[in-house]
Structure formats: structure tokens, C-alpha cells
UniProtKB/TrEMBL annotation:
<dbReference type="Pfam" id="PF13806">
    <property type="entry name" value="Rieske_2"/>
</dbReference>
<dbReference type="InterPro" id="IPR012748">
    <property type="entry name" value="Rieske-like_NirD"/>
</dbReference>
<keyword id="KW-0534">Nitrate assimilation</keyword>
<feature type="domain" description="Rieske">
    <location>
        <begin position="3"/>
        <end position="115"/>
    </location>
</feature>
<keyword id="KW-0408">Iron</keyword>
<keyword id="KW-0411">Iron-sulfur</keyword>
<dbReference type="GO" id="GO:0051537">
    <property type="term" value="F:2 iron, 2 sulfur cluster binding"/>
</dbReference>
<dbReference type="GO" id="GO:0046872">
    <property type="term" value="F:metal ion binding"/>
</dbReference>
<protein>
    <submittedName>
        <fullName>Rieske (2Fe-2S) protein</fullName>
    </submittedName>
</protein>
<dbReference type="GO" id="GO:0004497">
    <property type="term" value="F:monooxygenase activity"/>
</dbReference>
<keyword id="KW-0479">Metal-binding</keyword>
<dbReference type="InterPro" id="IPR017941">
    <property type="entry name" value="Rieske_2Fe-2S"/>
</dbReference>
<keyword id="KW-0001">2Fe-2S</keyword>
<keyword id="KW-0560">Oxidoreductase</keyword>
<dbReference type="InterPro" id="IPR036922">
    <property type="entry name" value="Rieske_2Fe-2S_sf"/>
</dbReference>
<dbReference type="GO" id="GO:0016705">
    <property type="term" value="F:oxidoreductase activity, acting on paired donors, with incorporation or reduction of molecular oxygen"/>
</dbReference>
Amino acid sequence: MKIRVCSYAELEAEGKRAVVADRKAVVIVRARDGRVYALRDVCPHKGPCLSAGMIDRGCAGERVGVYVYEPEVEVLRCPWHSWEFDIRTGRSLFAPERVKVKTYPVTVEDGDIYVEVQ
């Protein structure tokens, strides 16, 4: 079911917006390139709203104390414990195969954003 959740203009200021689509908490995120993504608005760790977190660029490392800046990766950071999720895939940066947030298909039509929830 495709549901209109907000206008594209409503994302301009902060880059994200908490919405409800078919009784599901969803966060709509606008990437730097203008693309729009939708993720479940609940962190799988302790349950806070990811929409209260910040959008940032990715940083990875193969071991403690090593950090590799990944400017092409945009993440939504949990406001409680800073768990980071790729806005495109919902996968966590620290355990992408095990820890992820559900994503939803998004379309932008005539300036309005639609989310498809199952």
C-alpha cells in the first residue's frame, strides 16, 4: 500500500522527518544528493526513535583506534547509544549482516513523498 507521508519541501530544513504510515513509525531521510529513503523509526538496540538522531557521514575501521572516513556513506545515528545505520540499506555499520533497520520503498511524485508499507 502506497501512502503519502509528507511533501519533499518538508524535508528541506532538517533532512529527516518522523511520520506514521499505516500505523508504522517511519523516518523519512533526504540524502545529500536529494534522494529520499524511508526506514523504520525504531532502533533495534533499545528502541528509541531514530528520527531523534542525527544524519552524518560514515566512518569505519578494521580494529579499535583505526578510523576510515567514508564520505559516500550517509548514516542515521541513534540518539541514545550512537548506533549507526546506512540510510540507503538500513544496515548497521558495525554488524551489517546481523543488525539492521527495516527499509521501505519510497517514491517522489509531484513534490510529494510516498512510502510503500507491507
